[in-house]
Design a protein that fits this description.
Largest sheet: 3 strands, antiparallel
Structural class: mainly alpha
Shape: globular
Bound molecules: acetyl coenzyme *A
Number of domains: 2
Order of helices and strands: EEEHHHHHHHHHHHHHHHH
CATH class of the largest domain: Mainly Alpha
CATH topology of the largest domain: Citrate Synthase, domain 1
């Protein structure tokens, strides 16, 4: 038995993404995340992840056109959303509606690569619509028909705001955040998606499995916990005492630590910079200043670095995005990576079925229910 949690276990071969936890490097299909964050767009990165190369102009046009024209979701899904309890968590709604989409997808049960690419395009285009729609529906607002122009990031902000044109800085900031979150090797949600795909179940099922795993606070759910913590602290003056109390209670500081990175998470450096810049643009760097102070203290006291979820919280907050949409936005981006991994799994599939080391009892004799003693507690 290893260290637990499959730490350091290599469970698949993949050409999609490399994570170097010692050097703090993240590579998508050979390209450094710093280069991609600086120069590319989310749509280009989607192409890179699915097809293994950066697109030509023509390839990019074809993919973006397909992504733009597949943004609508079936009316039945919208009707169902309107029936959901208004306090349903956005991740619950996303999990349920993505699963629901398969019932309306003509390719749902077709597992050849072309059909799976079509489904990957539809799902990538539809996830932002689902996330924005739930925020509109729960707030009793009219839904906004997705536009067939603009980037995925621009259209998402447009729908979320109820139909207002987003500003360029917000669109660019979200686009970079989407690039940074797009893939990360065998993280928990991608592994879940690959395990599901390896049974040769359909793309929607595999993506739903990914969403379920992303929701947890040890994974994608951490970004929402970070903003809760920042809001609870309230001001720079309270950071130290708040952290002291957390340390006393041995509570984890959300947005810190990583299973693979033992140094700075390369995604965090971009998000830190964006957090500061967005603060300066708003004329109030409070959330950045607090985050930066938390980083200094957690580094000094615990030796832990911020991960992708830490500074993304203040970035999304300054973009005016509702707090409980942070993890769904992670899903909007990671959808591209999940799809890439599901396609890769299907292309060279073998059922993923590890073993467990049995540590329970053996050779117990069956006792009739009337004769059982209840001296030990049920487990
Ligand atoms: N705050 C305080 N202490 C921490 C933190 C943290 N954020 N992270 C790890 N530690 C401590 C643990 O308490 C443990 O200490 P111990 O050995 O004294 O018990 C030690 O560091 C090792 O931690 P593990 O939880 O065993 O490390 P693991 O590799 O299993 O976990 C994880 C990695 C889940 C990311 C962890 O660091 C954590 O819980 N962080 C907070 C949640 C978070 O930010 N998740 C997002 C990760 S990035 C992503 O999924 C997109």
């Amino acid at each position: 038995m290893g260290k637990g949690g499959l730490e350091d276990v290599v469970a698949a071969e993949s050409a999609i993404c490399a994570v170097d936890g010692t050097e703090g490097r993240l590579i998508y299909h050979g390209y450094d995340i710093h280069d991609l964050a600086e120069h590319s767009t989310f749509e280009e990165v989607i192409h890179l992840l699915w097809y293994g190369h950066l697109p030509s102009k023509e390839e990019l046009n074809t993919l973006t056109k397909a992504l733009k024209t597949n943004r609508r979701v079936p009316d039945d899904v919208i009707k169902a959303m309107k029936q959901f309890p208004k306090d349903a968590l956005p991740m619950e709604v996303l999990r349920t509606t993505v699963s629901m989409l398969s019932m309306y997808d003509a390719d749902a049960e077709d597992n050849n690569r072309e059909a799976n690419i079509r489904k990957a395009i539809r799902l990538t285009a539809q996830l932002p619509t689902l996330v924005a729609y739930w925020d509109l529906v729960r707030n009793g607002k009219e839904i906004v028909i997705p536009r067939e122009d603009g980037s995925l990031a621009a259209n998402f902000l447009y729908m979320l705001s109820g139909g207002k044109e987003p500003d360029e800085v917000s669109v660019k900031s979200l686009d970079i955040a989407l690039i940074l979150h797009a893939d990360h090797e065998l993280n928990a949600s991608t592994f879940a998606a690959r395990v599901a795909a390896a049974t040769l179940t359909d793309m929607h099922s595999a993506i739903t499995a990914g969403i379920c795993a992303l929701k947890g606070p040890l994974h994608g759910g951490a970004n929402q916990e970070v903003i809760k913590m920042l809001i609870a602290m309230g001001s720079l003056a309270n950071v130290e005492s708040h952290l002291d109390k957390m340390f006393e209670k041995h509570e984890k500081v959300m947005g810190f630590g990583h299973r693979v990175y033992k140094t700075e998470d390369p995604r965090a450096s971009h998000l830190r910079k964006m957090s500061e810049e967005l603060g300066k643009r708003a004329g109030d760097t409070k959330w950045f200043d607090m985050s930066y102070k938390i980083e200094q203290i957690v580094k000094a006291d615990k030796g832990l670095n911020p991960n992708v979820d830490f500074y993304s919280a203040s970035v999304y907050y300054m973009l005016g995005i509702p707090n409980d949409l942070y993890t769904p936005i992670f899903a909007v981006s990671r959808m591209s990576g999940w799809a890439a991994h599901v396609l890769e799994q299907y292309a060279n599939n073998r059922l993923i079925r590890p073993r467990a080391e049995y540590i329970g009892e053996m050779d117990l004799k069956y006792v009739d229910i009337d004769k059982r003693s209840f001296s030990h507690s049920a487990t």
